[in-house]
Design goal:
The complex is a heterodimer.
Chain A (H helix, E strand, L loop, with lengths): L7 E10 L6 E8 L2 H6 L7 E6 L3 E6 L10 E6 L5 H7 L6 E8 L5 H4 L3 E7 L4 H11 L10 E7 L8 H8 L5 E6 L9 E2 L2 H8 L6 E6 L2 H13 L7 E4 L15 E2 L2 E2 H4 L2 E3 H5 L6
Parallel strand pairs in A: 7-8, 7-11, 8-9, 9-10, 11-12
Antiparallel strand pairs in A: 1-2, 1-6, 2-5, 3-4, 3-6, 12-15, 13-14
Chain B lengths: L4 E5 L3 H9 L3 E8 L2 E6 L18 H4 L3 E10 L2 E5 L8 E6 L1 H14 L7 H8 L1 E6 L25 E6 L3 E6 L2 H9 L4 E2 L2 H15 L8 H10 L18 H5 L6 E8 L2 E8 L20 H20 L9 H5 L6 H10 L4
Parallel strand pairs in B: 2-6, 6-7, 7-8
Antiparallel strand pairs in B: 1-9, 1-10, 2-3, 4-5, 4-12, 8-9, 11-12
Classes of the chains: A alpha/beta, B alpha+beta.
The structure holds flavin-adenine dinucleotide, iron/sulfur cluster (2 copies) and FE2/S2 (inorganic) cluster.
Flavin-adenine dinucleotide binds next to strand 4, strand 5 and helix 2 of chain A.
């Protein structure tokens, strides 16, 4: 059996700066050995541990779809004091880094079959939701799901990531896209205000629907009651959590919320599950 | 239960260890100044059979304080990983107290899992035969019986030695691994039927206790219920967050992973860590879900007596008393348990 602490080595194929502040970058990675890409079998919502050798490891949500056959990508925000995120941001294309995973559970794609899907994202935490949307929109999958409504917000237009890709989605007829910012600039033509308020205004139907929510804690906190008011049951509101992690495999004891380890029992939880856990996250 | 009993005299115990030294690395309690700790012995005479217990728990035999996970060398844009496994030689862990042996069976539930098996831990476990020594005397801080255990508990041991009258010891075989060790030994005395009875009687006496063990399922449920209660208001105020309790605890297994590198070569290591430290849960964004000592202490108690019950089906405390003995400000887990059982608030 493989050593669960030993990373694959992967090469950075492309680096994209995603925001105006330039502290969010997307890294497109390719495996040294294509057979390893096959082995790295994941579903949207899962994460992996990225390592820069000498700096350390960080858990990062997988931002690409499993149906993106050749590469796998991650969008990383650099923190001023963050050792690994800074080291990642200092990497250049062609450089080799480490990748361990995939880890954790994923969005409940089976439960989502045949249902309308409401996706609520904020800031750079939209990464695994982007993976999900890419998956849902794939020509081999799209007809398995109902209507898709995507809400996405950030403080300013410059902080919305994946802008180009999202505008191609907005141009499609099989997904409805609602973008919002707290502080618009002159050229902004879409919604203004916080995400939960836009969700309430647009009021997507809750019958035969499931909602996926991922974003800054404050956005998640206020989106949940907004969705409940629209009639979404707690079992039908799904979110993804973050806790400080090390091992990613349920051993190091770090990422617990109550008796659940976010790394192996999560990161995806329904609001119904979260309501049963200690409120310590 | 034990299927084979052998007898050995006190005098012959070190000789048995000497025999093992030919084949195994032997780790046993050894005297150091005014305390005892596990160490590799080179002669049977170095083992201390009488210390009530070692200062450090034996967890470090399987899960070292610091341990290399793999090495790496970076050369411009390329990386070479060195995952050569560490040499693990057959060893005997001798003279473990039953509480500590039981803690090893608990750690197995964490590290020896079907998915994500922790190979270094498991290799060491596989290579080790555990010979426990039942306690004939308890320290004031011992409370294994409250945890449903006893001074002759067999969980986690391959062989269990119980002292009989007249400086004789009965060795009970508990696993095939233990049987192999005994078969290889050149021990003088076969046990008589009477000796076997004496062994069983000693086990029964150890089990026969007037202490009422905690009901771990009930306690776990209660802890979950009172998570937000005022119960947690009073224990932490003097806690220094030093981590001594978790460091010494035989079942505490939280660790950190870090890279150590110099001039493009280095290694990834894991080090013991502690939920009693502020940094344990600090996010890079500055958010900390458990920022205060109140929450740290609650986490430690919840983890031992509630979360592990949910996850692994048993409380991860063996009542060894190490945290009781060495906490610099005398925070006493037994007192917390007593008050928990009585606590009526919600
Ligand atoms: C399931 C999951 C998915 C995530 N997805 C993304 C993502 O897609 N994009 C992104 O930019 N960030 C993501 N994060 C957060 C990211 O892991 C942290 O920002 C990052 O680890 C900070 O590392 P650092 O070394 O720069 O910071 P430091 O403060 O130097 O942290 C040191 C180490 O502590 C751990 N750590 C610190 N903060 C966190 C944290 N918030 N979460 C987990 N571990 C932490 C890491 O092991 C890190 O290397 C995710 C976290 C989790 C748990
Ligand atoms: S919590 Fe204290 S008494 Fe219980 S096993 Fe750990 S160190 Fe021993
Ligand atoms: S040993 Fe005592 S003071 Fe130190 S962290 Fe543990 S409870 Fe707190
Ligand atoms: S990250 Fe180690 S237990 Fe979850």
């Amino acid at each position: 059996m493989a050593d669960p602490y030993l990373p694959y080595t992967v090469t950075i194929r492309k680096i994209t700066i995603e925001n105006a502040a330039k502290d969010i970058k997307t890294f497109e990675l390719v495996f040294a050995d294509p057979a390893q890409r096959q082995q790295f079998d994941f579903m949207p919502g899962q994460f992996a541990q990225l390592s820069v050798f000498g700096a350390g490891e960080s858990p990062i949500g997988i931002a690409s779809s499993p149906l993106d056959a050749n590469h796998i990508s991650f969008t990383v925000k650099k923190y001023p004091t963050g050792v690994v995120t800074t080291a990642l941001h200092n990497c250049q294309p062609h450089q080799t880094i480490g990748l361990r995973g995939p880890f954790g559970n994923h969005y409940p794609l089976l439960d989502m079959l045949g249902k309308d899907i409401v996706i609520v994202g904020g800031g750079f935490a939209v990464t695994t939701l982007r993976a999900t949307i890419r998956y849902l929109l794939h020509e081999s999958k799209r007809s398995d799901f109902g209507k898709i409504t995507f809400f996405y917000g950030a403080r300013t237009p410059g902080e919305l990531v994946y802008r180009e890709e999202i505008s191609t989605w907005a141009a499609r007829s099989d997904i409805e896209v609602h973008l919002t910012v707290d502080h618009p600039d002159e050229s902004w033509t879409q919604h203004t205000g916080v995400v939960p308020a836009v969700v309430t205004k647009i009021a997507p139907a809750s019958s035969n629907s499931i909602a996926l929510v991922c974003g800054p804690p404050i956005m998640v906190k206020y989106s949940i009651p907004a969705l409940k008011d629209l009639g979404f049951a707690p079992e039908r509101i799904i979110t993804s959590l973050e806790m400080r992690m090390k091992c990613g495999i349920g051993k190091c004891g770090r990422c617990n919320i109550g008796s659940k380890y976010v790394c192996i029992d999560g990161p995806v939880f329904s609001v119904a599950e979260l309501e049963r856990l200690p409120q310590e996250f | 239960m034990s299927n084979e009993i052998r007898i050995i005299s006190r005098e012959d115990l070190p000789k048995w260890l000497d025999q093992m030294l030919g084949t195994f690395t032997v780790v046993a309690p050894t005297r150091q100044d005014d305390y005892t700790n596990f160490g590799v012995i080179t002669s049977g005479n170095q083992a201390d059979f009488d210390a009530v217990n070692t200062r450090m728990s034996p967890k470090q035999i399987f899960f070292p304080k610091t341990e290399r996970l793999f090495g790496f060398a970076t050369d411009r844009q390329q990386v070479k990983l060195d995952d050569t496994p560490q040499q693990i030689t057959p060893q005997v862990l001798f003279g473990v107290r039953p509480c500590d042996a039981r803690s090893i069976a608990m750690l197995d539930k964490v590290f020896d899992t079907d998915v994500y098996r922790d190979q270094q831990y498991v290799s060491r476990r596989k290579a080790t035969t555990i010979v426990s020594l039942a306690c004939k005397q308890l320290a004031p801080s011992c409370f294994c019986t409250r945890l449903g255990s006893n001074p002759a508990d067999m969980a986690g041991s391959d062989l269990l030695i119980i002292e009989l009258p007249e400086d004789r010891f009965a060795i009970g075989t508990l696993t095939p691994k233990g049987a192999d060790l005994l078969t290889a030994a050149d021990l003088p005395a076969q046990a008589t039927a009477q000796d076997a009875q004496a062994f069983d009687k000693a086990v029964r006496i150890a089990q026969d206790t007037t202490v009422k063990p905690i009901d771990s399922d009930k306690l776990a449920a209660k802890l979950a219920r009172i998570f937000d209660s005022a119960f947690w208001d009073r224990w932490h105020d003097r806690c220094l967050g030093c981590g001594t309790c978790t460091y010494l605890c035989p079942t505490c297994h939280c660790f950190d992973i870090a890279d150590e590198a110099k001039n493009n070569t280095g290694q990834r290591v894991r080090n013991w860590d502690s939920c009693m430290f502020d940094l344990f849960t600090l996010h890079a964004s500055g958010h900390n879900p458990r920022p205060s000592q109140r929450q740290h202490l609650r986490q430690r108690v919840m983890h031992k007596f509630s979360y592990t019950v949910d996850r692994y089906g048993q409380a991860f405390c063996v009542g060894c008393g190490r945290c009781v003995n060495r906490c610099p400000v005398n925070i006493d887990i037994r007192e917390i348990l007593d008050e928990l059982e009585d606590y009526q608030g919600g």
